[in-house]
Design goal:
Blueprint lengths: L2 E5 L2 E2 L2 E2 L1 H13 L1 E7 L3 H10 L4 E5 L10 H14 L3 E5 L2 H14 L3 E9 L3 E6 L4 E5 L7 E4 L14 E4 L32 E5 L9 H11 L2 E4 L1 H5 L20 E5 L5 H4 L7 E6 L12 E4 L2 H15 L1
Parallel strand pairs: 1-4, 1-6, 4-5, 5-11, 6-10, 7-10, 12-13, 12-14, 14-15, 15-16
Antiparallel strand pairs: 2-3, 7-8, 8-9
Helix pairs in contact: 3-4, 5-8
The structure holds flavin-adenine dinucleotide.
């Protein structure tokens, strides 16, 4: 079976969930071969093995992570030349898509981005117009380079004993054109990362103002959840844009998604409709969100949310 290269997303050795999703997908398509770039591999290797990496190419040289995306594209291009994989999977994040584009140019291949699934024969699935249309596409030239949206595939543990191979790449001057001069670690609160959280509580226009978002935060904290928001709420400046869920925001796929004061516009659904269990609190029984939910509460969020928070806190 052909190797499927998976570029592992990590922050200083801490593996992002999307990398485990890509390993799961890669093993469906062939043999998952993880590509690790930069320091931190020793602390992460068990997780890669747990999620089915059959092989790991380790490019530990710190220089590779001292520049913006170009070195990772150069490394992947080298591996494609040497190993002839069936496909290359990267995450469809901003960085991942840039790496995918650069790689495709370097190896003369087709590239598909924002893919939500890949079937046999490397037929990629795209969910477009807010999930209203499913499109299928296939790379016809070269080794398919496929950028897969985070939270599209459920990661499955599939323990393996990966063979490790150290790899080096010589960077050209163009690979070194954009150097990272400073890294600022974003202040992280107690809450889990929005795109990786098992539970997300989101607030919308119904919340009515920035100060009322403390109701959403209170409910989220009682559940150990991340906080999200609709675009109406972020555009109004009630909650920061980085928490927007939807077509032009983050895609989430938690075990539980609670939409509070959100109508359920198609662009919002696009970012949360694959959540396992969906609950909505909305005072309008006709709100479109109720077409989607597993459980719905028709009621005023200013009454329902505090009661729910209190009850959950009591039962903990
Ligand atoms: C190109 C494009 C991209 C977009 N991308 C996104 C995106 O990424 N994410 C996104 O969210 N939107 C996106 N939108 C906007 C989207 O179309 C909707 O306008 C937006 O999602 C509406 O947000 P909302 O549900 O919070 O507000 P509304 O649609 O105004 O809904 C508010 C809801 O709150 C309920 N409500 C009001 N008061 C209460 C109360 N006291 N108690 C309970 N319920 C109450 C109302 O009944 C209503 O259903 C995009 C639009 C476009 C055109």
């Amino acid at each position: 079976m052909a190797e499927i290269l998976v570029l592992v997303d990590h922050v200083d050795g801490e593996i992002k969930k999307v990398a485990l999703e890509l390993l799961t997908l890669a093993n469906r398509l062939g043999e998952a071969a993880a590509v690790w770039v930069g320091p931190g591999y020793e602390g992460a290797k068990d997780k890669l093995a747990e999620y089915g990496a059959q092989k790991v190419y380790v490019a530990a040289d710190e220089e590779l992570t001292s520049y913006v995306v170009a070195p990772r594209a150069a490394l992947l291009a080298q591996l494609v030349g040497e190993k002839s994989p069936g496909a290359v999977l990267v995450s469809a994040t901003g960085e991942g898509k840039e790496i995918a584009g650069r790689l495709a140019v370097k190896i003369g291949s087709g590239v598909l981005t924002d893919v939500v699934d890949v079937a046999d024969g490397f037929v990629a699935e795209h969910s477009i117009f807010g999930g209203g249309i499913i499109a299928h596409a296939k790379v016809k030239t070269g080794t398919p380079v496929i950028a897969v949206r985070p939270n599209s595939i459920a990661p499955e543990a599939a323990p393996a004993t990966p063979a490790e191979e150290q790899v080096t790449v010589t960077l050209s001057d163009t690979d070194k054109a954009a150097k990272i001069t400073e890294k600022v670690i974003e202040e992280k609160g107690e809450r889990p990362d929005l795109t990786e959280a098992a539970i997300v509580v989101s607030g919308g226009r119904g919340v009515g103002g920035a100060e009322n978002f403390k109701l959403i935060e209170g409910l989220a904290d009682s559940l150990g959840a991340a906080v999200g928001a609709s675009r109406a709420a972020t555009d109004a400046g009630w909650y920061p844009h980085q928490f927007q869920v939807g077509q032009t925001g983050k895609t989430v796929s938690p075990q539980l998604y609670i939409a509070v004061g959100i109508s359920g516009a198609i662009q919002h659904r696009a970012g949360m409709q694959t959540s396992k269990t969906i609950v909505a609190i909305n005072k309008d029984a006709e709100a479109p969100i109720f077409e989607l939910v597993d459980y719905g509460v028709v009621g005023d969020l200013f009454q329902v949310a505090p009661q729910l928070t209190e009850e959950i806190t009591k039962r903990k």
